[in-house]
Amino acid sequence: MGESYEALFETKQAKGRLAYKLFAYSMLVGICSIWLYRATHAPGWGEGRWAWMGIFAAELWFGFYWIITQSVRWNPIYRFTHPEKLSQRDETELPNVDIFVCTADPITEPPILVISTVLSVMAYNYPPEKLNVYLSDDAGSILTFYALWEASRFAKHWLPFCKRYNVEPRSPATYFSKLCDPRNASIPAKWSSMKNLYEEMADRIDSVVRLGKIPEELKANKGFSEWSSGMTSRNHPPIVQILIDGRDQCSIDSDGNALPTLAYMAREKRPQHHHNFKAGAMNALIRASSEISNSPIILNLDCDMYSNNSESIRHALCFFLDEEKGQGIGFVQYPQVFHNITKNDLYGNSFNVFTEVEFPGFDNWGGPPYAGTGCFHRREILCGRKYSKDYKEDWKRGIDRRTAESACILEERAKSLITCTYEHTTQWGQEIGLKYDCPVEDVITGLLIQCRGWKSVYISPPRRAFLGVPSTTLAQSLVQWKRWSEGNFQIFLSKYCPFIVGRGKIKLGLQMAYCVYGLWAPSSLPTLYYLVIPSLCLLKGISLFPKITSPWFLSFAYVTIGKHVYGLVESLQCGDTLAGWWNLQRMWILRRTTSFLYGTTATILELLRISKMGFAITAKVSDGDASKRYEKDVLEFGSSSSMFVIIGAVAMLNLFCLVGGLQRLVVDGGIMSLEPLFIQILLCGLVVAIHLPIYEALFIRKDKGSLPFSVTFLSVGSAMLVSLLTML
């Protein structure tokens, strides 16, 4: 290297860390003061003693969890790449890249959405002969294959159009939906022609999906003959089809330039064999691609996460190809960002604090977790390789591909690697590939990679690399968070707990950072206790907090105000609105009382061998009326989910306790009797205020997105019963 070395990326520390650390120390003093108050002011054995002890336990948990969260805020770092320096290198020396796109259900993940993602990554600003795009279809649907076949033909026109006019984003669905007229007035004719081509293709795909079958004349074409009657999403043979063979000199676009390789894969599925969900699909892709392209770099994406930045590969390669600091980097993680977030982020889907604060905080300790999408890996680390200073990556792997072998031979070889029985008696899913038996296979896989000595890096360029489709109903959001909390809690309780598996392998700060998410689920219990018991004690007239005139009141006031004011400032700095921050507070309460509670319960039941792990696919579409309500920032319920009963019961219980408690205090003791219960009145009032949209859904709204009568009946009935029992 010597004097010729030029860094391809740089790292900068976050500003204002000294001020933050002083604030954090003051918060710790306040938390300890609250603990001291609880320990020294416990009431005697009698009414309120057990409630006091429970509150003390909840506050011990909240304080402990707050300490854990400081690991991701203590010293965040930010990465900046220099792709212009990479562009100065000989492009023939750049590594090949395999891109994996995963889909599992043509109903919840419409094929037109899937191929828009595929087309966006095929159009990267990168030598096309070095790109290989694979679509894993876990449903083995001929409808998805048909859509990909259509995309392979459309790509011949779309890719040169994107590169000639520097189109961004390169998802045709997004590009044409955002533009009514072309930006460049000199290309109106070409723009209109391309839009017509896309719309004609989209209409053909949508028509086939509606009918549920492909045109008869296509069944004789290569690839379509793989499907036969009797095949289902859970019972089908392995299918591998190379729709565009990048090695073939005849595979060119309309401008005569090379096209990326494009392949379809559906691993074999049989009812008697467990398929290990997305982790199994990813491992099958790793093996199948090793026969066809075997590139040293792998990017994996969810089918709804289209490429929004055509330079993303080059940004990622700045880390891997840096001669001085790139040796130990195992994977590069981009943020998971969504494109149709409402102005005030109704369901807290923006993840702004995650992407701008917490992941950079991870990066300071050794790297962010693997988020399951938008991640570039070295192929070798996914195959179980441990880090060694002596290891030298073969960046030319896959460049000299098997030109003598036909696509048909490669397809047959790849099929033999994705059968149901291939992994039997192997280390796939354990030491090799993505880890099995965990709902968050991505997180545990990334943790194990870091424990093998590799580092990861986090990058969030000004132009977002990938944009996805968020949950647009409350049920979708809560189910997704239930899976995340359950999976992370399972990791925490297993032998793969960061404090156990990471001991001596990764820094203590990184172990703590993983536990921020690992302890989401058990946070449900103290949160639920804090939402219910102080309110019931208010109804009973039992004080659980110091009076306003007590010096101890200052500790509670400082910690509460300090935490929420800092959270508000942090959220606003990350791009949220004030109303968006308030919505996020509501969503954290709803997640903790439902998603995290269910995640805790599911984890315990699985540990006791009472139930088995499942995997729910989040729907990527919603009906028109629901979409309109989402755009207006109106919560979408519309079903009789047991989660909604809990939400409604907590909301109604606090309303009953606030009204009943205030009425009883004023009638029996006058205004002065409110002082010992001021904090409880304030707490109960805030809970009622944050649940205002719940009351609207219970009693006021009449649209299909409101809460059904059965939920209203159960919520009101259970809240009223608990309140009456407390009064006795």
Automatic annotation (TrEMBL):
<feature type="transmembrane region" description="Helical">
    <location>
        <begin position="644"/>
        <end position="665"/>
    </location>
</feature>
<feature type="binding site">
    <location>
        <position position="302"/>
    </location>
    <ligand>
        <name>Mn(2+)</name>
    </ligand>
</feature>
<keyword id="KW-1133">Transmembrane helix</keyword>
<comment type="similarity">
    <text>Belongs to the glycosyltransferase 2 family. Plant cellulose synthase-like E subfamily.</text>
</comment>
<feature type="transmembrane region" description="Helical">
    <location>
        <begin position="50"/>
        <end position="68"/>
    </location>
</feature>
<keyword id="KW-0808">Transferase</keyword>
<feature type="active site">
    <location>
        <position position="138"/>
    </location>
</feature>
<feature type="binding site">
    <location>
        <position position="278"/>
    </location>
    <ligand>
        <name>Mn(2+)</name>
    </ligand>
</feature>
<dbReference type="GO" id="GO:0000139">
    <property type="term" value="C:Golgi membrane"/>
</dbReference>
<dbReference type="InterPro" id="IPR029044">
    <property type="entry name" value="Nucleotide-diphossugar_trans"/>
</dbReference>
<feature type="transmembrane region" description="Helical">
    <location>
        <begin position="707"/>
        <end position="727"/>
    </location>
</feature>
<dbReference type="GO" id="GO:0030244">
    <property type="term" value="P:cellulose biosynthetic process"/>
</dbReference>
<keyword id="KW-0328">Glycosyltransferase</keyword>
<protein>
    <submittedName>
        <fullName>Cellulose synthase-like protein E6</fullName>
    </submittedName>
</protein>
<dbReference type="Pfam" id="PF03552">
    <property type="entry name" value="Cellulose_synt"/>
</dbReference>
<feature type="binding site">
    <location>
        <position position="109"/>
    </location>
    <ligand>
        <name>UDP-alpha-D-glucose</name>
    </ligand>
</feature>
<dbReference type="GO" id="GO:0071555">
    <property type="term" value="P:cell wall organization"/>
</dbReference>
<dbReference type="GO" id="GO:0016760">
    <property type="term" value="F:cellulose synthase (UDP-forming) activity"/>
</dbReference>
<feature type="binding site">
    <location>
        <position position="138"/>
    </location>
    <ligand>
        <name>UDP-alpha-D-glucose</name>
    </ligand>
</feature>
<comment type="function">
    <text>Thought to be a Golgi-localized beta-glycan synthase that polymerize the backbones of noncellulosic polysaccharides (hemicelluloses) of plant cell wall.</text>
</comment>
<feature type="transmembrane region" description="Helical">
    <location>
        <begin position="18"/>
        <end position="38"/>
    </location>
</feature>
<dbReference type="InterPro" id="IPR005150">
    <property type="entry name" value="Cellulose_synth"/>
</dbReference>
<dbReference type="GO" id="GO:0071669">
    <property type="term" value="P:plant-type cell wall organization or biogenesis"/>
</dbReference>
<feature type="active site">
    <location>
        <position position="442"/>
    </location>
</feature>
<keyword id="KW-0812">Transmembrane</keyword>
<feature type="transmembrane region" description="Helical">
    <location>
        <begin position="677"/>
        <end position="695"/>
    </location>
</feature>
<keyword id="KW-0961">Cell wall biogenesis/degradation</keyword>
<keyword id="KW-0333">Golgi apparatus</keyword>
<keyword id="KW-0472">Membrane</keyword>
